[in-house]
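A.,

Following up on our hallway conversation. Structure tokens first:
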């Protein structure tokens, strides 16, 4: 079947009605032609679905040294069976150290999502500004990524050619910052020996908000020696001007001892500790010439809006939804100001609860605030939504800048009203009938009464009149019968659909409520049972069981995907006394090199009991209730 055949088929399909479509297999098409037509439609649908996929490329860092590696991730959303891109285009500027791939498919509330990822470890071949080119997978094209490669290593230049087998390095950016501006802290621990365990302890910084942005692992080669580098990134937001003191970071490492055998032939390990030098920064106050209402020292800031409806045709009573999106790089979402639409006569504006989110990119925090508004016109006319202006401080240039979101003019038309034409039509008909009757009377000649056109049959007029009345009455009764029957059947059909819909909604709601309540009740039971196990281990002075139950308790109590470390629990609980007791537990387990020091679990048990009492019961398991204003107030 060629293209001309498909064109003729399409022209025939376009002219078919619904009943004729049912007769399609019997209207001249052979079975194979019909099957190939169905296959063509299926492939076109698959092509449309495949064309809607999203192909993205990302790296764990954009700036590195020539002797270091980095991670490139290629991801296709919407398909778990996409073709593998050609990785050979990387060979000109990069060495592929390793590569792996994974695919996933999830079905949540009947909605299917799938994706496939390729993860590559790369090392640059030369210094300079390199470019990771766009990859192709079918009709999809990924984004290109610029990479800046420095020619040397900061650590080697500072410490000479003799590198240590273990080292800790702290990097601060920027070294001079304003109050509430993000300060990047990068902690790098490098080791030329194999690691059996690693733990990095971050200090407490006074008068500052401290956020963990995650960890990256990569390799570097110095003088022919391979080093494993563990890089941890933090974001610090100073809350006051003056001196900001950053205490030392502490890294505890468990190193394997080669060519030695331990218990049950397991290689023994050696515990080592690295401590960084403390750092002191000068934090500047907000500039006196800053004119903005909210102090926003950011690397980049953007402002945009989205409308869910067509604003060109608006009538009284219609509902418009406007979403204002404010994004900033180098700020926390809690720092982003709210955006208000002023009251306008003729428009009812109902703001919804804002949605805040934080991610990170290139060691910078990315903050996002989404605010939606429901706008209902109450009268016709033109209404002007004013411009929205956000003043912010560009931390790169050290200058004040503006972001302007253009306003919009809404032209509201009166509400559409249905006018009845039956009265005027009936009046016109009655007028025409009256004019016809008057014409008959005026044209009537009395002499014609004595000259009948046809012979007079006794009773003929009465018979004809009765038959006409009978036919009219029968037709009217039949019409009324069918109208009433059709109306009753339609009403019963609509009632049945409504009852089925309500039954389905009630069943779905009951299933969701029972499932949600069951999961919450089970998690609460798990949290209580694990805390009892922790208290029992504390009473028995069993530090290993206590640490194991504590991590399991933290996962369920804070609703995490994985078990947190003791250091994570210290920050999640945000309790100084409990944090001190947790540090003593880890100190005993990790650094008790065969000494006879004992661990007193009573202290940790008391602090845990006090922490639980101070928590509101079921706070983490209770669903928030958000009450919004009515859309149409009475």
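Then the amino acids I'd put at each of the 634 positions:
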């Amino acid at each position: 079947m060629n293209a001309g055949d498909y064109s003729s088929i399409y022209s025939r399909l376009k002219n078919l009605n619904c009943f004729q479509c049912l007769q399609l297999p019997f209207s001249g098409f052979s079975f194979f032609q019909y099957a190939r037509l169905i296959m063509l439609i299926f492939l076109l649908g698959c092509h449309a679905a495949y064309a809607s996929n999203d192909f993205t490329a990302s790296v764990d860092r954009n700036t590195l040294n020539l002797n270091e590696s980095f991670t490139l991730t290629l991801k296709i959303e919407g398909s778990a069976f996409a073709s593998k891109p050609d990785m050979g285009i990387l060979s000109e500027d990069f060495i592929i150290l390793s590569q792996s791939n994974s695919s996933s498919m999830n079905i949540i509330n009947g909605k299917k999502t799938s994706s496939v990822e390729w993860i590559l470890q790369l090392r640059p071949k030369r210094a300079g500004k390199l470019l990771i080119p766009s990859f192709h997978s079918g009709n999809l094209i990924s984004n290109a990524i610029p990479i800046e490669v420095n020619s040397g290593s900061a650590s080697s230049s500072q410490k000479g050619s003799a590198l240590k087998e273990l080292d800790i390095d702290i990097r601060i950016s920027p070294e001079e910052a304003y109050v509430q501006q993000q300060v990047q802290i990068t902690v790098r621990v490098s080791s030329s020996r194999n690691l059996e365990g690693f733990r990095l302890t971050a200090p407490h910084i006074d008068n500052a908000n401290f956020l963990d942005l995650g960890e990256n692992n990569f390799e570097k080669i110095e003088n022919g020696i391979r080093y494993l580098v563990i890089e941890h990134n933090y974001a610090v937001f100073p809350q006051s001007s003056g001196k900001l003191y950053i205490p030392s970071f502490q890294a505890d490492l468990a190193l394997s001892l080669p060519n030695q055998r331990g218990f049950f032939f397991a290689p023994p390990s050696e515990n080592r500790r690295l401590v960084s030098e403390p750092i002191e920064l000068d934090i500047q106050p907000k500039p006196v010439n800053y004119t903005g209402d909210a102090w926003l020292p950011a690397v980049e800031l953007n402002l945009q809006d989205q409308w869910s409806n067509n604003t060109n045709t608006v009538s009284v009573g219609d509902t418009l939804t406007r979403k204002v999106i404010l994004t900033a790089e180098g700020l926390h979402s809690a720092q982003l100001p709210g955006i208000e639409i002023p009251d306008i006569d003729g428009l009812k504006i109902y703001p919804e609860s804002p949605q805040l989110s934080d991610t990170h990119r290139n060691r910078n925090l990315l903050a996002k605030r989404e605010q939606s508004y429901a706008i209902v016109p109450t009268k016709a006319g033109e209404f002007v939504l004013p411009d929205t202006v956000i003043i912010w401080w560009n931390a790169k240039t050290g200058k004040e800048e503006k972001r302007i979101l253009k306003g919009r003019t809404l032209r509201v038309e009166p509400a559409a009203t249905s006018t009845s034409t039956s009265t005027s039509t009936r009046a016109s008909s009655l007028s025409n009938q009256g004019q016809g009757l008057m014409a008959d009377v005026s044209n009537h000649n009395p002499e014609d009464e004595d000259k009948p056109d046809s012979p007079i049959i006794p009773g003929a007029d009465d018979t004809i009149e009765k038959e006409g009345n009978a036919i009219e009455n029968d037709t009217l009764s039949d019409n009324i019968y069918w109208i009433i029957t059709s109306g009753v059947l339609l009403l019963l059909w609509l009632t049945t659909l409504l009852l089925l819909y309500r039954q389905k909604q009630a069943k779905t709601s009951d299933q969701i409520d029972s499932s949600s309540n069951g999961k919450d009740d089970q998690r609460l039971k798990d949290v209580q049972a694990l805390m009892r196990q922790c208290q029992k281990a504390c009473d028995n002075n069993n530090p290993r069981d206590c640490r194991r139950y504590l991590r399991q308790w933290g996962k369920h109590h804070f609703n995490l995907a994985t078990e947190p470390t003791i250091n994570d629990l210290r920050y999640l609980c945000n309790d100084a006394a409990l944090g001190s007791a947790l540090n003593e537990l880890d100190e005993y387990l990790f650094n008790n090199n065969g000494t006879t020091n004992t661990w007193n679990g009573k202290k940790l048990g008391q602090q845990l009991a006090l922490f639980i009492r101070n928590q509101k019961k079921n706070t983490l398991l209770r669903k928030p209730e958000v009450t919004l204003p009515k859309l149409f107030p009475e």
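The first helix runs from residue 3 to 14. Curious whether your intuition agrees with the design.

B.
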